[in-house]
Design a protein that fits this description.
Layout: H1 2-10, H2 15-33, E1 40-43, H3 53-80, H4 87-104, H5 107-113, E2 120-122, H6 123-156, H7 161-164, H8 167-189, E3 202-203, H9 210-214, H10 222-254, H11 259-287, H12 294-318, H13 321-334, H14 339-349
Parallel strand pairs: 1-3
Antiparallel strand pairs: 1-2
Helix pairs in contact: 3-4, 3-5, 3-12, 3-13, 4-6, 4-8, 4-12, 6-8, 6-10, 6-11, 10-11, 11-12
Length: about 350
């Protein structure tokens, strides 16, 4: 209407130039105001088949319950048994806590989406998922390095272990992963929060992941994608290389010792190396390997958000005699015949 008025009432001869100027100013206005026209994203999920949704819901619900029960059991066992109040088990309990966080930032939403046809997520919730995945995943990478340092001191310097791994050092080894994870996720989120989204809004995954969301922006994100890969790749590869170096040094140092010491070191390191491989493998392929497709990324995302958190308790408990003994003690303490009913009566009559 404004264009018609200018043309027929105002008689402006430079009308075409004004129209071009108005068309050119639209992207600039979007960029300058940082206003996103997309208010929500559509998560395509793991499968488009409606027949598979109930089956997937049951499977992942059981897996998620296993993650919560297994990791909470490790935390409860470590905190309740005084013999496990050592740096190694302190770090293990923190690993279980991060595993719960890694599994919980997206799995409840995924379970809810299995029950609905339209799988939508708000723009703010999408940014929250990006924030959480890089905070928890980045923190877990560095925490695994802290656990490797603990094993290095325990195996290579056993006489000075309690002196080096003091309570203050243990707290620092836990705080550093959270600090690095926070810095990492803030740097990643800075790439996304100001991007203009005004076109397609379908994310081909079951949660908002940074590489997938940036591809939906209305501008060319090639440089931003390179920065994302460089940021995530540096953290992943540097942590992985530190772990490989630490394990190599440990195995080299114990090779000259007795066969019993070598067997114990190998048994301890096998669990750590298995966890490191299960966690870092998918992360490196998703954020560093340039040839992985969306279908592959979905499988790998499920692996490090679901399967790794549920495998960690099994790996660290089934191969650890102290943990198994402490869990049996915990079971006998809280699951005695009649113990539960006695505890309930005490609560009711107090």
């Amino acid at each position: 209407m404004q264009w018609w008025f200018k043309k027929y009432c105002k008689g402006d001869e430079n009308l075409e130039d004004e129209e071009v100027a108005e068309e050119k100013s639209l992207p600039e206005m979007v960029n300058e105001s940082n206003i996103s026209l997309v208010t929500e994203f559509v998560l395509l999920g793991l499968s488009s088949s409606q027949e598979l949704q109930p089956f997937l819901f049951v499977i992942f619900l059981l897996l998620y319950m296993g993650i919560l029960l297994g990791n909470f059991l490790i935390i409860l066992t470590v905190t309740s048994d005084a013999r496990l109040h050592t740096p190694m088990y302190f770090l293990l309990a923190n690993l279980s806590f991060i595993d719960i966080c890694v599994a919980s930032f997206a799995t409840p939403k995924m379970l809810a989406d299995f029950l609905v046809e339209q799988k939508t997520i708000s723009f703010e919730a999408c940014l929250a998922q990006i924030f959480c995945v890089h905070l928890f995943a980045g923190g877990e990478m560095v925490l695994l390095v802290s656990m490797a340092y603990d094993r290095y001191v325990a195996i290579c310097k056993p006489l000075h272990y309690m002196t080096i791994m003091s309570r203050r050092v243990c707290v620092i080894l836990v705080l550093i992963p959270w600090g690095v994870g926070f810095i990492h996720t803030i740097s990643q989120l800075a790439f996304t929060v100001n991007l203009p989204f005004c076109g397609p809004n379908q994310v081909d995954s079951f949660f908002c992941d940074l590489p997938l969301v940036t591809k939906l922006a209305c501008i060319d994100t090639y440089v931003i994608s390179l920065l994302i890969v460089a940021d995530s790749g540096f953290l992943s590869l540097s942590s992985f290389l530190l772990l490989v170096i630490s394990y190599t040094v440990i195995l080299t140092s114990v090779r000259k010792r007795s066969s019993a010491s070598m067997a114990k070191a190998r048994s301890t390191l096998t669990a750590h190396i298995t966890v490191v491989t299960l966690f870092f493998g998918p992360c490196i392929f998703i954020y560093v390997w340039p040839f992985s497709g969306y279908s592959v990324d979905k499988v790998l995302a499920v692996f490090y958000t679901i399967f790794t958190p549920i495998l960690n308790p099994a790996i660290y408990t089934l191969r650890n005699k102290e943990m198994k003994t402490a869990m049996l003690k915990l079971k006998s303490q809280y699951l005695k015949p009649g113990q539960f009913s006695v505890s309930i009566r005490k609560v009711l009559f107090l």
